Amino acid sequence: MCYGAKKSGRKQANLARVDELVANSIVLGCDTETARQYGEVKNQLRLKGCPLPENDVWIAALALQHQLVLVTRDAHFQEVENLQTVSW
Question: Based on C-alpha coordinates, what's the Rg of the chain?
Answer without folding.
Answer: 15
